[in-house]
Amino acid sequence: MHRCRPRPRPGIRATAGLAMALGLLLAGAAAAQTPLPPAYDYAEPPPQAPRPVPPWQDLDLGDARHAYRMPAYANRKLAGAPLKDIRRAIVVLHGARRDAGRYYQDIEALVARDPARKADTLVLALEFPTPIDAAFAGRPAWRKASWESGAKSIQASGRPAPVSAFQVLDDVLRRLADRQRLPDLGDIVLAGHAGGAQLLQRYAVLNDLDGVLRRQGLGVRYVVANAPSYLYLTNERPRRRGAGYAPYERGICPTYNQYPYGPLQLPAYAADPDPASLYVRYAARDVVYLLGSADNNPEDHGLDKRCGAEAQGATRLSRGLGYVRYDRVLAGRGNRPVALQHEHQQVMGVGHESAAMFGSLCGTRALLGDDARTASDAAACQPVAP
After folding, report:
1. Helices (H), the chain
2. Greater pLDDT, 10 or 201
3. Which one of 32, 189, 299, 313 is CB 3.0 to 4.6 Å from 319, fit for a cystine?
4. Angle of helix 165-176 relative to helix 195-206, nearest 10 degrees?
């Protein structure tokens, strides 16, 4: 008599098949799995935490008719007794992120490396607030990036009367030139990167204070690093593939030659609106252009993509190279060429990084003088070819 074996139920058979297939899949995955990295070496020192940013200070500016306070980071106390040991002042302008504290740390680290400079250099990093910065209530505030082109601060209750970003720089320079506060000051260096460089380049062209300070015995230098665009003083722009300069096609960008990209509709701050006389004066000023050779990404999220900027080139590097060569073209025109007092340097292998730009060999020397101590790993520089 044969006993009938119970027929397996369909659900059990399917479950067994699924389990077998899953086991084979896991075995194959295990065989193809990437090996685990070696165990962490706990003897290796952990990365250093970023240095804390020092508290910001109020910088009292203006006069009795229009007094206001600007937030700033500094390596000396800004209020109180005169700073008798200061011989050089570096005024730092932040980029679009408005991270003045980090810019202060970058420059202060360069100064601290050189004992002689540490003893006699004032580092002053300005902050340009926006209306939403609650910590800076009662101080001037600018809408978005309007300060980068020298625009006026907003008119609002609880804020001082509007003041242009150009006027802020004028007032900072006048405060530094006050011999009662800094009796031994000999040199002022204004340094800007990215958005701060855009403001500074326009200021170097348009301000009327440079000559006044020089006649008082003060040296004034402008260090412009990786600016997103430049102020041209004619209607020409670089041709493609570096084939000289020509008027840009207005059909592509009707406003390409208007301020802040060109000489049309200059702001009221420009006392002399004549482009030719502006250029002659600007050419005689001590301006150092620093261009990161790797700041060449046309899709960078922070790149100015307005058509006035695009008319100058596709990347920050191409715009910078086009402008500094244009600088030389203008200086050599006419029957009486202009003596150009500008320096044009590429910082090799560096992109849109303020610390590496200012810490490069040419950046450190532009800020602290030719005999300044440079870091062993400082990026090399190469003069821009004609």
Report:
1. 10-32, 100-113, 115-120, 165-176, 195-206, 210-215, 275-283, 307-310, 316-331, 354-358, 361-368
2. 201
3. 313
4. 70
Helix (H, G, I), strand (E, B) or coil at 59: strand
Residue 231 pLDDT exceeds 70: yes
For 245-285, strand residue ranges (E) read: 245-247
pLDDT per residue as tens digits for the range 94-128: 999 999 999 999 999 999 999 989 999 999 999 99
Q: Which residues neighbour 372 within 8 Å (Cβ) at sequence distance 6 or greater? A: 110, 114, 117, 364, 365
What SS3 class is residue 148? helix
State the pairing for strand pair 286-292/342-347: parallel
**How many angstroms separate the CA atoms of 38 and 235, rounded?**
61
Q: Given this model, what pLDDT does residue 42 score?
A: 52
Is the pLDDT at 33 greater than 90? The verdict is: no
Question: Confidence band (pLDDT; 50, 70, 90) for 5?
Answer: low
The full set of domain ranges for the chain reads 57-383
Q: What is the pLDDT of residues 257-275, one digit of tens each?
A: 999 999 999 999 998 889 9
The SS3 of residue 369 is coil
- For residues 66 and 100, the answer to whether their CB atoms sit within 8 Å is no
Q: Provide the CA 367 distance to its chain's centre, in angstroms.
A: 14
How is 89-128 classified by DSSP, letter by letter? Answer: EEEEE--TT--HHHHHHHHHHHHHHSHHHHHHEEEEEE--
Pairing of strands 381-383, 342-347: antiparallel
Q: Assign domain 57-383 one CATH number from 3.30.160.100, 3.40.50.720, 3.90.320.10, 3.40.50.1820.
A: 3.40.50.1820
pLDDT at 7: 54
Cα-based angle 70, 74, 76 (whole degrees, multiple of 5):
120
User: What pLDDT score does 301 carry?
Assistant: 87
